[in-house]
Amino acid sequence: MLLDEDPATLIHHTIGNFNIQPDKLAVSRINESLSTLQQARELRAREAESALKKLSRTLTTLNNHHLETLSSHSSTAHASEIATLDTQKFRIAKTANDLEIESERLSSQLADLQARLQELELQGVDGGDNARRGLVDDEITLKLKIYRGLGIDIEKDKSGEYSKAIIHNEKKGDVNVVSLDNKFSRYFYANYFWQQL
């Protein structure tokens, strides 16, 4: 019978029938892989621990720096400084705006003066005919104002010449009309006008 044989022989034949050598090699490879994986995990754990310690030291340094900054910093002084700087900023902006407006005004005035200078340079040193005519007109206008201030109105005729003087005497309450002719001198008319006033 089968059980009458030696158990060692039976086990040996049974082992030979199962062919466990590939399984043993697979288990050996798995053990090697597990060992390599364990080593890699330990290495990564050591690196992570080292990085954690470094980050912890950095965090401690930054916390200390933050606490020092907070202890040396005054929020009221900061707010006051910001308000002062804002005031200065607005004052500078207003001054710059005023200067810009003044610059535009002076530029306009400079352009007007340059145009006037060019006009005077074109007239020359003696002022040209237009300038002489302007002076004569100003002289006549001044004389007419003086006469009117004294109560004497001078009127032009159709040819544009002054031919009639109207003398108002407020003290006497009368009006005299005098025709201006070339046959009498200016001295005569001056004396006559003074007598009528």
Automatic annotation (TrEMBL):
Coiled-coil ranges (or none): 96-123
Annotated CDD domains: RWD_Spc24
Protein's job: Acts as a component of the essential kinetochore-associated NDC80 complex, which is required for chromosome segregation and spindle checkpoint activity.
Subcellular localization: Cytoplasm, Cytoskeleton, Microtubule organizing center; Nucleus; Chromosome, Centromere, Kinetochore
Keywords: Cell cycle, Cell division, Centromere, Chromosome, Coiled coil, Kinetochore, Mitosis, Nucleus
PANTHER family: KINETOCHORE PROTEIN SPC24 (PTHR22142:SF2), PTHR22142
Name this polypeptide is given: Kinetochore protein Spc24
A GO MF label: microtubule binding
Main location, first listed in the record: cytoplasm
GO cellular component term of the entry, any: microtubule organizing center
Similarity section: Belongs to the SPC24 family.
GO BP term (any one): chromosome segregation
Quaternary state and interactors: Component of the NDC80 complex.
